[in-house]
Amino acid sequence: MSEATPHRLFIDNEWREGGAGTYPIINPGTEGLVGHAPEASAQDVADAIAAARSAQAEWAATAPAKRAALLDRIADLVMERAADFVPLLQAETGATIRVASTMQLPVVADRFRRYARGALEPTVESFPAHPVAATPLAAGGLTNAAAARRPVGVVGCITSYNFPIVNLAGKLAPALAMGNTVVAKPAPQDPLACLKLGEIFVEAGAPAGLFNVVTDSGAAAGAALVASSDVDMISFTGSTTVGRRIATDGGATMKRLLMELGGKGAAIVLADADLSKAIMAIGSTWAFHSGQICTAPTRALVHRSRYDEVVAGLAQFASRLPVGDPLSQSTVVGPVISAAHRDRVEGYITGALAEGARLVVGGTRKEHTPDTPELPAAGFFVAPTLLADVTAGMTIAREEVFGPVVAVIPFEDEEEALAIAGSTEYGLYDYLFTADTARAYALAARLRSGNVGINTAQRHPETPFGGFKQSGVGRDGGSFGLHAYSEQQAVVWQS
């Protein structure tokens, strides 16, 4: 992508220049320019909201089969245009080419296809007739009722930088399937593929106003969506800090909220665990998108009898991961999203060492182990880092780093492990490793976490996804995503 590549706001099926100019999008792997994104003005955001509002009633009245057909067509076009999308996605996110080509675009298509089917799912639940006695309010009689799911209305989708178009598709597809319209505000760091998705909607024949995209280099556009009385719901993925602000500001207009926020995943490794499975799962913190995953098992809580084995196994795993050019098929660990985020991650590592943690593998550019791989001169790289002798009270054990850093904490028994796992403000995704799955199931019930993996870091796409505590509000995924983007209406009548 060159500096001349045009990127414009997508509003009401038309392209327009940003009312406040443009800002640069930087390739995290090379520090080169990918292109310029449009800087939306307040009027741009207002126009996008108005377009979505104008289109919503007609889209809600559209037959579910027609909604499904449009979503299927979008899925087909996304894959037909893979050669256009993948290089752009890779360049603006810094993802390795393997992640960009296999876990970004195909997942987008899968989500549109899943919710094409979802548009056809029943939306009405009937109840048995119920005899009701006369009251001063109404005559008695045999009373019938149904609960119907209705569209929420206009949805503001504020998305994350780690998987920009995947995250957007996970919001956009179920919202549209339920009859809503959408104004999307992508993360500032990598919005270009989200903008490009507008081309797919036009080619697919989507009605004007159905999907709109506004971008900016900060938070103003997102704040305008949250504040607008014409936006009925905010779906947000990002930090807990921003989520709290959205909850506060959205309360003024009683916004419906779906928020997937931060995580600090605990991987509890019991004495009888298969260590190869545990190490592989924990190692995904390094091997999958440089740890920029909210569900990553960044805290390894290990029974003291297996502690040294796990530390040694993780050290070996980390030291063998190829770090470097994300365009190389052999690269496993690419860059993080920006220089500012690289500095933030390194700050956490430095802070952990100052608090008494032991650096086993990796480290910062200034302080690292001898076997740390040499990092490229350009790009925002952090070496896969393993910290041992960590205690539950250390900052590295409590706060979300969102980078390729794993902290290992020993425990003596189950009670201590559960206490450590629950000692953070987060509760998004935890993991249990043990030969006894019945024991794991019982322990899962005691974890204050929205998701628990037993002997695996794999997810199931139909399960409800979301967090306990400060990790979020609401659930999406599978049919739960359809529920999230709808309101329930009770309809009552008498025979």
TrEMBL record:
<comment type="similarity">
    <text>Belongs to the aldehyde dehydrogenase family.</text>
</comment>
<dbReference type="InterPro" id="IPR016160">
    <property type="entry name" value="Ald_DH_CS_CYS"/>
</dbReference>
<protein>
    <recommendedName>
        <fullName>aldehyde dehydrogenase (NAD(+))</fullName>
        <ecNumber>1.2.1.3</ecNumber>
    </recommendedName>
</protein>
<dbReference type="GO" id="GO:0004029">
    <property type="term" value="F:aldehyde dehydrogenase (NAD+) activity"/>
</dbReference>
<dbReference type="InterPro" id="IPR016163">
    <property type="entry name" value="Ald_DH_C"/>
</dbReference>
<dbReference type="Pfam" id="PF00171">
    <property type="entry name" value="Aldedh"/>
</dbReference>
<feature type="domain" description="Aldehyde dehydrogenase">
    <location>
        <begin position="15"/>
        <end position="491"/>
    </location>
</feature>
<dbReference type="InterPro" id="IPR015590">
    <property type="entry name" value="Aldehyde_DH_dom"/>
</dbReference>
<dbReference type="InterPro" id="IPR016161">
    <property type="entry name" value="Ald_DH/histidinol_DH"/>
</dbReference>
<keyword id="KW-0560">Oxidoreductase</keyword>
<dbReference type="InterPro" id="IPR016162">
    <property type="entry name" value="Ald_DH_N"/>
</dbReference>
